[in-house]
Hints:
It contains eight helices and five strands. The protein is of the alpha+beta class. The protein has two domains: 2-177, no CATH class; 209-341, CATH 3.30.1330.60. The protein has a five-stranded mixed beta sheet. Strand 1 and strand 2 (218-222) form a beta hairpin. It is rod-shaped and about 145 Å long. The chain starts with a helix and ends with a strand. Keywords: Coiled coil, Membrane, Transmembrane, Transmembrane helix.
Amino acid sequence: MAIGRRRQQRHIDYWPGFVDALSTILLAIMFLLTVFVLGQFFLSREISGKDQVLNRLNSQINELTQLLALEKSGKQDMEDQLAALQASLSQSEGDKSRLQKLLDAGSGIASGAQSRIGQLSGELDAEKQVSARAMSQVELLNQQIAALRAQIAAVEGALQAAESKDQASQAQIADLGRRLNVALAQKVQELNRYRSDFFGRLREILSDRENIRIVGDRFVFQSEVLFPSGGADLNDAGKAEMLKLAQAIIELAKEIPPEINWVLRVDGHTDNVKLSGTGKYADNWELSSGRATSVVKYLISQGVPADRLVAAGFGEYQPIAPGDTPEARAQNRRIELKLTEK
């Protein structure tokens, strides 16, 4: 009876376990190949943008690292299974040795023992074949792990190259920004110099006029010098003043380099007295705009380039003198000239 129980214990079917192991290995290999193809696809798309390349490369490194850890775990499982197979093989060899001893000791059970030995030998050979296939799979996994490591190294190299290129690009951008700032500063200095020349010449021409003032970087003409009350058509005195201004602008325009994008801004302002609405202009907005436009059109008629003039109306909403006294209102009724950039 003891011998019968030993036979039942030694008869173990290992084949389903090996089939599951091989299926798992094949699935892992297919998964790795899919991940590798997807990784190549995403890597080829991610070289278009600097910041996206860096982020996606880091993400791929993390994914490949996780896959490497997963494959290491699978390799450990296969090694554990191989160790179990080797232990089973050792046990089978021990059984074979014990059966051989029993065969020598008792002739009555010799034929059965010999048959069992043959069966165990067959099982042993099958287990050896399975073990050899498992070793082959382990070797294949080792090769795949080495390939994954090489891929990770290539990705890290690409990441380092991208970072180096990014640093070089940042240095070039900083240098271009510095050069642009220097060029802008030079243009501003040139415009300031010509603005100073412009103001100097206008001071010489208009310094003896009591109704013309200089406020900051602007020349201020009182409206009474240029226009009739409530109107926007230049009177004879206004045309005479604007003719001098046009001649000064034309002379200055010849000296300013064409790359300096300058304009003369003509701003119209009124006082806060509401118009009656029965005249040509409905309100102070229209009156201030009409006066600025009249000045610009007259300057153009005297030869000033139209693309160097700008007309703007501010109505009563930009006063320079507070209060409602006649003096304050007179100061607020004005035409301002300012040399500036477009």
